[in-house]
Amino acid sequence: xxxxxxxxxxxxxxxxxxxxxxxxxxxxxxxxxxxxxxxxxxxxxxxxxxxxxxxxxxxxxxxxxxxxxxxxxxxxxxxxxxxxxxxxxxxxxxxxxxxxxxxxxxxx
Length: 108
Fold this sequence. Notes:
With about 110 residues, the protein is mainly alpha-helical. It is built from two helices and no strands. It starts with a helix and ends in a 7-residue tail after the last helix. The model has no long low-confidence stretch (mean pLDDT about 85).
């Protein structure tokens, strides 16, 4: 049987936990807003830079492969770097989505 004292101790533990959780959520909101603004402002520049690098890398690699590969040309390295630019852009959009929503769950 639960006594009044144990109920009071449990209530105090839960209250402290709720206050701590509320403080953490407030801190997350205070960090999330400026990060979202910075990511949104940089988004056109990041998108343009990574898209152009990916497209030019693939086009140059294919062009040099078609005309006859020059010696010591890293075809697969250039292709991997171009695909890496596309993946980096996808990660940037995912980061923007997660920070702007304020939730780490994608099914909301």
